[in-house]
Amino acid sequence: MKYTVRALLGATALCSAAALAHAETLTIATVNNGDMIRMQGLTDDFTAKTGHTVEWVTLEENVLRQRVTTDISTNGGAFDIMTIGMYETPIWGANGWLVPLDDLSEEYNVGDILPAMAGGLSYDGTLYAAPFYGESSMIMYRTDLMEKAGLEMPTAPTWSFIREAAAAMTDRDADINGICLRGKAGWGEGGAFITAMGNSFGAQWFDMDWNATFDGEAWANTLNFFKGMMDESGPAGYATNGFNENLSLFQQGKCGMWIDATVAASFVTNPNDSTVADSVGFALAPDNGLGKRSNWLWAWALAIPAGSQKTDAAKQFIEWATSTSYIELVAANEGWANVPPGARVSLYENPNYKDVPFAQMTLDSILSADPLNATVNEAPYVGVQFAAIPEFAGIATDVSQEFSAAYAGQQTVEEALAKAQALTNDAMEAAGYR
Asked: Which CATH number fits domain 137-296+376-430: 3.20.20.330, 3.40.50.1010, 3.50.50.60, 3.40.190.10?
């Protein structure tokens, strides 16, 4: 009996030593938003379960995209896991730049991922990134200021109502801006917002022959409406405000309305961070009477670059961070309102989550976004706030810089659109589309 116990203890020690010998240090590149920062604070749970440790490289959104794109396209090997989205995943998967996630565990339950998210993170039927959270965009607004203005927010408002409400809620003396929107340059910052807004005005990036369409009436209407409304009712310096800047303004009580990612709902309703947490309402993103709303579709997702030497450990982290168990871990620590939304069907079937005030509006917004038919007129590309072609990121970054310069008054809207038309057509011709 003693021999048996000693043998078992010896075997256990050997197993522990083997586990430690195989413990890895994973380097993860991620975006500096609240949900990702929350995940970093819970990483000890992953280390306790697996023995693997994590080094975080946390970057502002535009910088993150630049760093990970450069690294993966050159096979730089700087990261074991990258935070990427619906734009990059299918393109990089097709290029062989990502490790396919086709062997995740049965317990992980890939089938529980919302179809809109799984579809956008796959190429040729294979999942190449797992959604940490999914999002659309919606209106977040101050119910007290709306009431004070004598208005009532419709569930599905028009842009004309939003502009009227923004003007009515603006109080410059009290430092309250009627509306806060992204104007910051970057294809995924202000570029994403104005593209989604443009869809509702009948605008699109390309016609069916891949010609740019910035010389058309729809884009002029979009930019002139946006700039006019923001000059009337937006914050000073809105041309350089992105997600994080507007989040901060809203939490400080300086915005009557904010149209942005649905994921922000948990931040603006958290009384620990938001001074207006008890007076926030939600509505669908606006339309313009043309049959398309201005909400986007996105997932921040975790993927493994093909150059990683730590694939097994990286898959363990992805399973940990995007699982139902992780959602329950966040709920236990910070409440159900703060769990990562929009990724799993089961979350929206969970009775604990159904009482969260923004849960249904988030799901409705996600389900109403159609990346296959995002524009009023037929377009040759898929994507809501982006065109899913490799050239788009570079082109749209340049175009967004011209738009931001117009918002800032450095050039006219007409000049910005003319430059956008020329640079887009030049790039598409050089890439062989025209």
From this structure: 3.40.190.10
